Amino acid sequence: MKDNASPDLSQCLDLLRTMYLIRYTEEQLAEDFAAGKTPGGVHLSTGQEAVAAGICAHLTDQDQLASNHRGHGHFIAKGGDPKTLFAEIYGKSEGICRGMGGSMHVADYSKGIIGANGIVGAGLPISTGAALADLLDDDGSFTVCIFGDGASNQGVLQESFNFAALWKLPLLYVCEHNGFCQFSPAETVTAGTISDRAKAFGIPVKVVEEGNDVRAVWNAMAWASEYIRAGNGPAFIEARTYRINNHFEREHLVVQTPYRTREEVEKMRQERDPIIMLRQWMLNENLTDEKVLSAIDKEAARIIQESVAFGEAGTVPPENIGLEYMFAGTYN
Amino acid sequence: MARTRLITAINDALREEMERDEKVILFGEDVEASIFGDTRGLIDLFGPRRVRNTPISENTLTGMTVGAAASGYRVVLHLMFANFVYTGMDGIANQIARARLMSGAQIDLPITIIASYGGGRANAAQHSDTPFSPVMSLGGIHVLAPSNPADAKGLLKSAIRCNDPVIFFEPGGRGGEIGEVPDEDYLTPIGEAAVLREGKDVTLIGMGSTMRMTIQAADKLDKEGVESTVVDVRSLAPLDEKTLCGAASNTGRVVIVDESRDRCSAASQIAAILADRCFGYLRAPIKRVTTPDCSLPYAPASEKYLLPSIGKVLAAANVVLSTGETR
After folding, report:
1. Contact assignment for A105 to B102 by CB distance below 8 Å
2. A108 min Cα distance to partner chain B (Å)
3. CB contact under 8 A, B57 and A330
4. CB neighbours of A158 closer than 8 A, spacing ≥ 6?
5. CA B63 to CA B289: how far, in whole Å?
6. How many other CB atoms are there within 10 angstroms of residue A328's CB atom?
7. Neighbours of A13 (CB within 10 A)
8. Rounded distance, CA A87 to CA A315, Å?
9. Is residue A29 a contact partner of residue A35, using CB atoms and an 8 Å limit?
10. Cα dihedral across residues A158, B78, A326, B135: positive or negative
11. pTM, whole model, 2 decimals?
12. Which residues are registered as beta bridge partners of A176?
């Protein structure tokens, strides 16, 4: 695969479909949270869809993905079912984690989705262990860890780099740099360039300056996937995007001092929307027409509405079910 | 039966389980050099794929066990000193102990963490803790503290075969202690205490590193004509409440010996359970022999002053024998 490989028309339409599914999921959950429909909080990834879609387009069910608290998009892009996602976030037995995990812990191990995580950076050790299993299995599959710029300041990033470089683990680090560590602009809490930290361990790096350009993310991932599957060890992608959503929904109720302006967010929303960017490019290149794109849009909206209905129709888990799930209680 | 050192029994358990199941992998700090001797020789038998020396990175090590276990491996992590439970705590408390429930039981986590604990060897305050309760209180992890070679081997084999996470506490500095170990393949069940002897006057409950002094105290009492029921807790989580209650009810007078710091110790938990479940059978207040809520000093005499001892067990026994209801 050449370094400048690009998605073909069918792949572009798939990327668009994935991004619409994520967009409609997040928009729905924003409404749901505001309406008090979700039992707990949600961290949304509107505007960051290109990273999830571009990365996961190159993965199979055998490849594993560790995600973070802002993980709905990663779940969907990796092949998770939006129906079980909504049921989970509504706290229902039909949820992918039977209502036991919620928004911050969506995981579908049958699809290689080894868990969103409520602890910033905790996906790094877990994916290091998963990549060790990949190395031992030696079946050509690999593990991806998607984390944010905030997680880059956890010590486990450096620890994990050391393991992965030392053991040549098939592990891809994806720093989804959305510019904000909870309620602090990244530059106020993060020194230097994050991907440079990987270089110090001899891990090859690709920086995607416009991480909202899904084709650019796809391209970087084409390189990383080929590099890792060939047995070369770990690689690192830093994709620069922007967090349109608050850290969590309705954060204005608790944030005392604003850390960014509405104008900034609005500007990003209008100028760097990954869905609009891909649509525009495809139309400019005369690859397809509005009718095809609109059909994808409508289809995604329909799938999410069905998923909402599925979640709403779900059943409330038995009150004492937690005790049952704590232990397997079995021996090998 | 063969007379075997405790550390050799642990080594045998690891070797036998790695021979039995090729999915068992072992990693941790200096598992090749094996300063305690428990992982000695395993690198030669099983090679560097399954036996891996690691960097000193406890938080990544503990978290890694989840990724490897969820991918189908049975993971044994050697954490070296039990104080490193604290440096690896995110992996233990937020990941290992939580991942099964959070996933809605999509995964099992066959993980065994081995850590050597306890004071008495002038290792100073950061290499001498007995951190039973910080992990007992997590839920989601079984906690074992064997006291002799046979139990150490049988419990470790159970831990490795168990599809749930286990922390296996190895009594530091006691690897040379010898005991009879069965020749055949056997398992010591998780969650079962052992009654070592039955006597009518007082119940002495010990665990792990305090078991030897507990037995020695019972021997001394025996010479004075006082009969002891002696219990080895073995499994701190889950606790064998039935056996503990039975042993306490036999005499109504209970001393619990635990090297943990007193506040929220394993001894405190056992005392609370006994007070709750056997109140009607108790004849005297339950006494705990523990380490005071203090860091362990380096200077040997100052350290020794704080740790449980035969003298302290006997003193506590005399208190429970001389107070409360008479027969």
Report:
1. yes
2. 8
3. no
4. A197
5. 35
6. 16
7. 19
8. 9
9. no
10. negative
11. 0.96
12. A148, A239
SS3 state of residue A128: helix
ipTM of the complex as predicted: 0.95
User: Between chains, do A327 and B100 touch, taking CB under 8 Å as contact?
Assistant: yes
Q: Which residues of A touch B65 (CB under 8 A)?
A: 129
Measured in angstroms, the CA of B309 and the nearest CA of chain A are apart by: 36
Q: Candidates 3.10.20.340, 3.30.70.1670, 3.40.50.970, 3.30.420.150; correct CATH number of A9-249+258-314? A: 3.40.50.970
Smallest Cα–Cα separation from A126: which of A151, A109, A142, A145?
A: A145
Instruction: Say whether residue B238 is in contact with chain A using an 8 A CB cutoff.
Output: no
* CA B131 remoteness from chain centre: 10
Q: How far is B166 from chain A (nearest CA, A)?
A: 11
Cα dihedral B253→B211→B129→B66 (10° resolution)? -110
Residue holding tokens 């339950």? B286
Mutate to test the interface with A, among B46, B52, B66, B186 (most CBs of A within 10 A): B66
pLDDT (tens, 9 = 90+) of chain B, 327 residues, equals: 999 999 999 999 999 999 999 999 999 999 999 999 999 999 999 999 999 999 999 999 999 999 999 999 999 999 999 999 999 999 999 999 999 999 999 999 999 999 999 999 999 999 999 999 999 999 999 999 999 999 999 999 999 999 999 999 999 988 889 999 999 999 999 999 999 999 999 999 999 999 999 999 999 999 999 999 999 999 999 999 999 999 999 999 999 999 999 999 999 999 999 999 999 999 999 999 999 999 999 999 999 999 999 999 999 999 999 988 765
Beta-carbon contacts of A324 under 8 Å, excluding residues fewer than 6 positions away, are B105
Distances (CA, A) of A224 to A13, A51, A61, A133, A154: 22, 14, 17, 19, 23
Reading the block at residue B2, the tokens are 């063969």
- Spatial separation of the C-alpha atoms in residues B88 and B56, rounded to whole Å: 10
Q: List the structure tokens of B227.
A: 């009969």
Give the phi and the psi of residue B204 in degrees, each rounded to 5: -110, 120
The two three-digit tokens of residue A323, written as one number: 């005790």
Report the range of poorest mean pLDDT among A132-141, A295-304, B171-180.
Answer: B171-180
CA distances (Å), B64 to each of A225, B28, B125, in order?
22, 11, 27
Residues of A in contact with B62 (CB under 8 A): 125
Closest C-alpha among B95, B326, B262, B131 to residue A120: B95
* B67 at interface of A, judged by CB pairs closer than 8 A: yes
Task: Please check whether residue A311 is in contact with residue A86, taking contact to mean a CB–CB distance below 8 angstroms.
Answer: yes
Tokens of B262: 């007193």
Distance of CA B292 to the CA centre of its chain: 19
DSSP, res A241: -
Dihedral angle of Cα A256, A260, A264, A268, to the nearest 10 degrees: -100
